[in-house]
Structure formats: C-alpha cells, structure tokens
Write a structure and sequence with these properties.
Strand content: 15-25%
CATH superfamily of the largest domain: NAD(P)-binding Rossmann-like Domain
Largest sheet: 7 strands, parallel
Radius of gyration: 19 Å
CATH topology of the largest domain: Rossmann fold
Number of strands: 12
Number of domains: 2
CATH class of the largest domain: Alpha Beta
Bound molecules: thymidine-5'-diphosphate
Shape: globular
Strand order of the largest sheet: 3-2-1-4-5-6-10
Length: 344
C-alpha cells in the first residue's frame, strides 16, 4: 500500500534531505511538507521536489491546529515524520520563547492530530542532546534525559509528550535521537556550514573556548536512512539512537575543514565560550538497538566532509543569499560581535 507521508520541517536541513530521499526511494508514496519557513526553512532546498506530482507543500506552523488537521484530512496522511523544530543551541540561549512553541506545543498538536486521524506511524526526530553530556562511554536509550540547554530541554519536553501519547492512547510512535548531522542545505549557523562559509570568505572562525569539546558526526543521508529504518521497522513506542560513530573535537574538525578548503589554520580564533557552563563537553551514542534493524552509517567521515565542503563551494548562490540577508547579519553581529570584535 502506498503511503501519504507528512514531513514537517521539510524545508529545513535534515527535513529537505529526507524529502528528496523519500521521493526517490518510494515512487509509490506521496510526500506532503508542512513548514513554517522561518529563518532556517528555505524553499530553495526543495527546488527539485516542487515539480514532482507526488509532492505537496503547505506553509504553516505545527502549532496551528487548523492547518495540521486540514492537511491530515485532505491529504489522507498515513505517516508523520516530525522534523519541525527550533534547532540552534546558540539562539535558544538568547531567546527560548519560539522553541517552546515549536519543540513542545507543536509536538502536542501533531500528536493530537495523529490520534484523531488514526495515523499508522508517528516518527519524532529528536537529538542526542536530550541526554546532556557524557565524559566517557556512550548513551543508551534507557539513560535518563538530563538536558542542559534551553534547546535540548525543549526537545526533551517534546519527547515526553510523544511517550505519554503512546502510553495513554496507543499512538504508534517511534523516536530517533540523532547525533550532530552535516551535509548539503544546512543553514550556516551550525558549526560546519558556519565555518565553511566563513572560511570561503576568509573570515575568522570563532571556536568556543579551547575547542576540545567532542561531537559525534553523522552524514545527513545516513541520518535519513536511520529514520527510514526506525519508521518502517522500528518497534512501536521505542526510541532509537542514531550516531555517526565519528568522534572529533571541534578543533580537529575545524582543522580538517580548513585543510579541505586549502585555507590556513590562522583563521581560527579561540573566543570566550558564549555557552558558558551549558556547553556540553561530549556526546556519544550506543547504536546497538538501531543496529539490530540492520542500520549502520555507510559514509566514511573524510569523504562525507569533503563532499559537504565541495557542495558549499559549488552552491555559493544558495548560502550567499542567506549570509547577505538582514536577519542573518543581525544575528551574527549581535551574537558574535561582542566576542569577535574587529574579526567579525
Ligand atoms: P553546533 O553545530 O551548534 O551543534 P551542537 O551545539 O548541537 O553540538 O555546535 C557544534 C560544536 O561547535 C559545539 O561544541 C559548539 C561549537 N561551536 C563553536 O565553537 N563555534 C561556533 O561558532 C559554533 C556555531 C559552534
């Protein structure tokens, strides 16, 4: 039976990659995107999808019950994959209001609709950050959620609603917790696209503190494949870690980027850490559970990073339109101005 898949946040980074992935992999399925097109949602990410007759786009917020219910009804939605979120830690530390609307309230509205319209599967895309930080070893799905930033607290709150809707109403939910993801179409505020695009402009790279924090990197197509495994084969009510297995310090990955771009290390600026004590030192995920569904990352880190760097080199118009926008410039000036000074 063909599916009608609602992909919320489908104009964002991982969401748009998932839209392309799904349209290609499942030629019988319809793909319906609901996206608020806030600063990070970009219709340019869906350029090749919009001409596909199996694709529909709706502008709107997941907090809007009328819009969500209308789409579920008219598009006869069978599966929901929720990418919609305010996803940037640095922004969440400046202003947490929007993130509670999208990351908590919106999840509740989607769950309510999933119950009402008898959705076959509800997959909620979460993050390794809900666990907080880990010095040694790896987080398992059974570990407690101990978020340490406003963003990760919002994501943990959304997850609690998913859990409760499954228990209370038997909604067939699945949650994935992905590690730091990278690849094409990522808004240039996260570490990699921010540093790649700044280095391409020969601008200094603000590395927080010593740069010894560790992140586990996952290429976006591997992330999409992991979500697919959990959506189609995951156990209902279950949570699945999706880790890339590539642990690198921020300093090391920054040096790799500079090397790939042929730019000098002297672009790196060690700046006072704007996240302060909320800066998580390390994330790492145990992926045994999703491994039992047959998933493991396929992309080698160096190749994937090289491909990503090349994509930003080849898609200058895409990111230049963003970095020249007033909204972007004012965020960068307001957030980085005080720590970068003349290097801004
Ligand atoms: P980020 O890409 O924002 O993802 P997350 O906070 O979800 O891990 O940041 C990755 C790491 O890079 C994190 O340890 C913070 C650090 N970082 C910098 O050092 N400088 C920057 O300008 C940014 C955006 C991040």
């Amino acid at each position: 039976m063909s599916r009608s898949v609602l992909i919320t946040g489908g104009a964002g980074f991982i969401g748009s990659n998932f839209v392309h992935f799904w349209l290609e992999e499942y030629p019988e399925d319809r793909v319906v995107v609901l996206d608020a097109l806030t600063y990070a949602g970009n219709l340019a990410n869906l350029q090749t999808a919009v001409t596909n007759p199996r694709f529909r786009f709706y502008p709107g917020r997941i907090e809007d019950r009328t819009v969500v219910d209308g789409i579920c009804r008219s598009e006869r939605i069978t599966h929901v994959v929720n990418f919609a979120a305010e996803s940037h830690n640095d922004r969440s530390m400046v202003d947490p209001t929007g993130l509670i609307d999208a990351n908590v309230t919106g999840v509740g509205i989607l769950l309510r609709a999933s119950k009402h319209f008898d959705i076959e599967r509800f997959l909620h895309v979460s993050t390794d950050e809900v666990y907080g930080q880990i010095e040694n070893g790896q987080f398992r799905e059974t570990d407690p959620l101990l978020p340490r930033t406003p963003y990760s607290a919002g994501k943990a709150g959304g997850e609690m609603l998913v859990r409760a809707y499954h228990i209370a109403y038997g909604i067939p939910t699945v949650v994935t917790r992905g590690s730091n993801t990278f690849g094409p179409y990522q808004y240039p505020e996260k570490l990699l696209p921010f540093f790649i695009t700044r280095a391409l402009q020969d601008r200094p790279l603000p590395l927080y503190g010593t740069g010894t924090q560790v992140r586990e990197w996952l290429y976006v197509t591997d992330h999409c494949r992991g979500i697919r495994s959990a959506l189609l084969n995951g156990a209902v009510g279950e949570v699945y870690n999706l880790g890339g297995g590539n642990e690198l310090t921020n300093l090391d990955i920054t040096k790799l980027v500079l090397q790939l771009l042929g730019k000098p290390d002297c672009l790196i600026r060690h700046v006072p850490d704007p996240r302060g004590s909320a800066h998580d030192a390390r994330y790492a995920l145990d992926c045994t559970r999703i491994g039992s569904l047959g998933w493991r990352p396929q992309q080698a880190m160096h190749d994937a990073l090289e491909r990503t760097v090349r994509w930003y080199c080849d898609h200058r118009a895409w990111w230049e339109a963003i970095v020249q926008s007033e909204a972007y410039r004012s965020f960068v000036a307001g957030y980085y101005g005080p720590i970068l000074g003349d290097d801004l």
